[in-house]
Amino acid sequence: MFAGKSVHVTAVRRKDNEISFLEVPRSSSKEWVRKLKKVPLLRGLVAIIESTANGARHLNFSAEVFAEEEGEEVKQEEPSLFGKISMLLGVAVVGVISFIFGKLIFTLVPAFVEHTLFNNHFENQILHNLIEGLIKIVFLVGYIYIISLTPLIKRLFQYHGAEHKVISAYEAGVPLTVSNVQKFSTLHYRCGSSFIVLTVLIGVIIYSFVPYDNLWDRMWQRIALLPVVIGVSYEALRFTNVLRDTPVLKYLGYPGLWLQMLTTKQPTDEQVEVSIASFNRMRELDSEITKPHVI
């Protein structure tokens, strides 16, 4: 999937080698949403909600195409609870809810584990926060590694790597051919993986400014400060992107690149070809939409 100035495009290869596209206009129907996108700190929350909703919608398109290619028939049996919720709220909304639920789990469980294991050993809350951050990173890396072993997620991570390669090749100004694109790295500064790592690191800093008396205070603080952590992390990600070509300061983005070693994998030539098709289609639609009209 690629996001242009005016459209999101996802490309899927079918068994007959035909490439199908999902093209979703990139527009905010409400003026207040567009205004929030320009407000520092708040724009991070808006960006995460939008990207999660769009990602869920595009992944659902891929799943539908896969099911169609496998010849699965629509069953008339009673839908599952998850299916009922998806039909009621929509795939995008369910995707956002799933993200929030997952974020809460990876925020609260490490705090609970750290409190259980180390609460009686020392009183320095900053040190407790550092250990909590380490536990969170261990949980995160372990979770990503385990799911990356499944064939479906491995394929998803290969396409993730292909997307990064295409973007890097485009930014380098080389023709977007499979052979050219494959020469580039699967790692890229502007990636959600970098954002995930930043939320852990920024969280440790922000939590250190807010003292707590017991485990429940600590839990509620984590929930209340989650929007703040997300907002500050988004601004930090923008900052590291600006500095990526600056000597010494470019290393600020390295933790995110290290995590991408798990969330991206080397793609096949066929996967790169699909990514190029998606990117070119996105640029084509962008140019058509922004083309001036002659009166």
Describe the structure.
The protein has a three-stranded antiparallel beta sheet, sandwiched between helices. With 295 residues, it is mainly α. The protein has eleven helices and three strands. Helices cover 67% and strands 5% of the residues. About 5% of the residues have low confidence. β1 and β2 form a beta hairpin. The radius of gyration is 21 Å and the shape is globular.
Short description:
The protein is mainly alpha-helical.
What's the structural blueprint in terms of helices and strands?
Blueprint: E1 2-3, E2 7-13, E3 19-25, H1 31-36, H2 42-69, H3 81-89, H4 91-118, H5 125-148, H6 151-172, H7 178-181, H8 192-207, H9 215-242, H10 254-263, H11 269-290
Antiparallel strand pairs: 1-2, 2-3
Give the DSSP E fraction (strand runs of 2 or more residues).
Answer: 5-15%
Radius of gyration from CA coordinates: 21 Å
Major β-sheet strand ordering: 1-2-3
Give the distance, in angstroms, between the N- and C-terminal Cα atoms.
Answer: 35 Å
What's the mean pLDDT score?
82
The tally of beta strands, per DSSP, is 3
Spatial shape: globular
Encode the helix/strand succession as letters.
Answer: EEEHHHHHHHHHHH
Query: What structural class do you assign from the helix and strand content?
Result: mainly alpha
- Summed up, the helix count is 11
Largest sheet: 3 strands, antiparallel
Point out poorly predicted stretches.
73-77, 81-89
The helicity comes to 55-70%
